[in-house]
Amino acid sequence: MLDKFIEIFQGLDIAYGEYFLEGSRDNKTGKEKGRAITKRAPVTKELFQKHLNGEINLGVIPIRQDNTCYWGCIDVDKYDLDHKALIRKIRDRDYPLVPYRSKSGGIHLFLHVLTPTPAELMIEKLSLLATDLGLSSCEIFPKQRQIMVYKNDLGNWLNIPYQQAARSTRYAMYDSGMGVPITQWYDWVQNFRLTPERFNELKVYDNDIAEKGFDQYPPCLQALIRNGCEGGYRNNALTAFATLAKKKNPDGWQKEVWDRNDSFNEPLPSHEVQGLIKQYEKKDYQYKCSDLPMKNHCNAELCKTLDFGIDSAAYVPKVDSFQRLKTSPPIYFLTIEKKTVELTGKACNQQQLFAEALFDQADIVWQKLKDKDFRIFLMQLKSMQQDVEGYDEDTEAQEEFKDMMIQFTQETQQADNASQIEADMWYLFDDKVVFKYKTFERFIRKSNKTIKKFELINFLKKNGAVKKEYYDKIKIKNVWYCNKFIEPVIERSNNLFKRKAAEFDDNVKTKNN
């Protein structure tokens, strides 16, 4: 069973997450409180086994190093949700989602595939399904379209099910809402795993709607037309439909508003519809994306690309995650609209630099906020921050220093005797490289003109270099001693390359003859 479990839930193999429960729940959300950490370390069979044994809470990062994945998930953190009703809705629309109970009693809707699938396509498919199901506010995994492993951008992880498998409360669910035992789980999941062909064919249930221009309506209004208006939100819905009608037909839009109202199971009274129309005859209104029921079906990133969607100026990018790499100084990775942006602390705190980073790295135009609102935004980022552990900054710095010293000794002339150190050379003494600070500084400034003297001196000291004094018969001078690093051995190629004579090259022809 272990190999089958890994087959289904495999992900990034060089990092994982762990969640340490505190034994209490959040009063507002009902979610179990705990501490989440990301570790940079190999994801082994032993970790999966410990998870199944109940020894750890293992989190797997779905996006792999090649930016593909074997699964995606809609994380539904609604704890008062009717699981049976949601599963019934999913099956009625023939969506191949597998529901799993989460650790806090919510529900995870997994999409399992048989072959590695680009994370970007997985996100697009799940976003469409979430929009139709009214789950737009829920997190979607993978959170990134691409990750930069070489920069320690590792993506976000999700707690996988069947922790403490024999007595797990985090199990897959049959259509009846009953739990699937771990012994029957693998066979059950096979019913829903998608081939590449079936994955590409997966689309939103449209109920054969033939309305002209329907595919260019905002996703939220497409969902309301397909599924009907929810509960007591008819006024909000009709307001959005009025905005759509004016975008489509600026001259004869009033009739469409009346027709939309008539399509509701319980139409609004005539005087309310007439009042709404009078408002819209006086001025234009934008879509109110944060109002229910539109909020539950919102897909702003898609909406701004549609003919009758939101205006670009009204588009607010969605923040997916915020991670801190504990270097000195720290490096931050902001995932916004599923795109990763690398930031410094300074870029986080200065809105102009923040906007430039988004523009350069994610092709996102940031709408400037008031200072107070930007501070609130930063506090929200901090509240969702996750730390990445397992990055050995000292080892990285030592390797960088080693490579730098090897390059220094290669590109700077070696002295024949100690006195030549004064002529910007380095001297080898007892397996130590001896040099003047100014010589090393000139070498460094070829590639880094802004480095300050105190930074360079600290860099030398931190990596074991020692400053010593010597007397040259006139005055006392200072030199630096550093270990001589062994240069890497590069094997030469044994291939012999011969020049091929061109047809017009008489000189080569004569030599060959």
- Helix proportion of residues, in percent? 25-40%
Structural class: alpha+beta
What is the number of E strands? Answer: 16
Q: What's the end-to-end separation, in Å? A: 72 Å
Sheet with the most strands?
Answer: 8 strands, mixed
Taking all Cα atoms into account, the compactness measure Rg is 31 Å
Low-confidence stretches: none
Number of helices: 18
CATH C-level class of the largest domain is: Alpha Beta
Supply the CATH architecture of the largest domain: Alpha-Beta Complex
* Count of the separate structural domains: 4
**Would you tell me which CATH topology of the largest domain applies?**
DNA primase, PRIM domain
Q: What strand order characterises the main sheet?
A: 8-3-1-2-12-9-10-11
How much of the sequence lies in strands comes to 15-25%
Identify the overall geometry: elongated
Helix/strand layout:
Elements: H1 2-9, E1 15-25, E2 32-40, H2 45-53, E3 58-60, E4 68-76, H3 83-92, E5 98-101, E6 107-118, H4 119-133, E7 139-141, E8 158-159, H5 182-190, H6 196-201, H7 219-227, H8 234-248, H9 254-263, H10 270-282, H11 300-303, E9 319-325, E10 331-336, E11 339-343, H12 345-349, H13 351-362, H14 371-383, E12 385-389, H15 393-411, E13 427-429, E14 432-435, H16 437-445, H17 453-462, E15 466-471, E16 476-483, H18 506-512
Parallel strand pairs: 2-12, 9-12
Antiparallel strand pairs: 1-2, 1-3, 3-8, 4-6, 4-7, 5-6, 9-10, 10-11, 13-14, 14-16, 15-16
